[in-house]
Amino acid sequence: MGDIRQSLLPRDVLSAAKELLYHLDIYICNLVQSGRQPPQVDAKTLELVEEFILHAPKDRNAPARKMSALQELQLLEIMCSCFQEQSRDTVRQLMFSALFHIQGNQADESRMVLLGKLVSMAVAVGRVPILECAATWLQRTHRVYCVRLAQVLVDDYCSMVPGSVPTLQNIHSMSPRFCCQFITAVSTLYDLSSEELVPPLELLQMIVSWIQEDPRLVLITFLNTPLSGSQPISSLDVTPLGSLVRWCVKAPLAYRNEKKQVLANRSADSEPDPRPLFSALHLSVLQVFMLLPNVLNEKGLFGRLALLQMESVAALTSDLSRLLDQADKHAHTSAAGAQVPPQLALDRLAQALQVAMASGALLCSREDLRPICSRLPHNNLLQLVLSGPVMYYNNIHTPPLAYSPHAAHSPIASHAPLPTRSPHTPLTSHAQYPAQPFMSGMPFAFRPGH
C-alpha cells in the first residue's frame, strides 16, 4: 500500500483518512484471502496509518496535520460504519490492530486518544463489532493502556454527562466479552489506595448489578481464551476476581471516615452509603468462586491453574496491614464501634481465602498463607482458616457450567468453549493441591448490614 501515499498527500485530512481506511480494508481482505499464516500488516501500511489517520508527521520538521472537532467526529462515524459493514471478524480484528496496536512510538498518544473516542462512541451508538475488537485489544495490551481506556469510559459515562450511566450499562447485553474486560480494567484501575482511586458509586452499582445477574460474566475471558500457561505479566488478569476481592476486603477501611462515605463534591444527604454495595459484591464474588470447581474440572484444570495468584494475596495482606495500622491510630476518633470495619475487613479476607482454596482458585497450602498473614491482627475466622479443621468437605454443590435459570440468555452461551486439553499438557509450574476444606459447622460471618 506504500504506493498510495502520493495520492493521499494533496487531499484534506478527512478525505485522506477516509481513503486510507477504504484501501486498508481491501488490503487486509486480500491478505486474509491469500492464506498467509499468520496474516500480518506490513510496516509501510502501519506508517501510512500513523501519518494520515493518527497524524504523526513522517518528517519531524513538517507541521502536524490536525483535524477540527467536526472532522474528527466525521472520521469516528466513518470508522464505526467501516467496522459495522465488514462481516468477517478476522478482517475487523486485523484492521483494529493496524489502527490501535501499541507500537512504543510517538504516535501512541494519538492512538490512545482516538481509541478512547471510538470506543466511547461505539458504546453510545451500539456498535458491537468495535466493542468485540476492543475486548481483544484489552486482552493483548499492556495494562497501563487498558486502564487508560477504562478511565475514558468512566469519565464519559459516570462523570461528565449526567444520566448516561444506563448507556454504559448496556455493554453487558451488547458485548459480554467487552463487559468482562471492562470490569477487569476498572477493578485494576481503582485499587482503593487513595480517595481518588475509590470507584465512583455509579460504576460500583453497575458492576454489582452485572455480577448479580450472571456471576459467570467475570469468567468469560477465561472460558474463551486458550491458556498455554501463565498470562504475560504486563497484561490484565484473565479474570477480575483478584481485584474484586481486593475491593471487598479494603472497602470497610477505605470508607471508615464519614468524608469517604461519599464521592468528591457530593453531599452525604444526596449520596447513598456505598458500603452495602461492597457487601453485595463480596457475596457475589464468593458465588463466582463456588462455580469454579465444576468449571475447572470440565477443563481438566482443577488443581493445575490458579485464578487467584499468591502474589495478589500477598499484596492485599500487605495493604490491609498498613490500613489497619492507620485505623488503629485514628481509633480514638470513633466510639466503641471503631473496631467493626477492621474486623469486617479481616472476616471478608478469611472468607475469600477459605472459598478460593476450597474451589481450586487459590493453589496453596495453609502453611504458605500463614507467613503472608502473620502481620495481620487476630481474627477468629481468619485463625480458623489458617489453622484448618480436621474434616474435609469436598462435595461442593454448584450448578454445572451449562446450567443457569436464564441459560438461553446467558452471555457465555454465545461464546465458544475453551478447547479441551490433554491431561498431560503442562500448564503451570504449580504443584497439584487438593481442594481445601470448608469449616465444618462454621457459617460465614457475613454481615450484609455493614
UniProtKB/TrEMBL annotation:
<dbReference type="Pfam" id="PF14964">
    <property type="entry name" value="INTS15"/>
</dbReference>
<feature type="region of interest" description="Disordered">
    <location>
        <begin position="412"/>
        <end position="432"/>
    </location>
</feature>
<feature type="compositionally biased region" description="Polar residues">
    <location>
        <begin position="422"/>
        <end position="431"/>
    </location>
</feature>
<dbReference type="InterPro" id="IPR027844">
    <property type="entry name" value="INTS15"/>
</dbReference>
<protein>
    <submittedName>
        <fullName>Integrator complex subunit 15 isoform X1</fullName>
    </submittedName>
</protein>
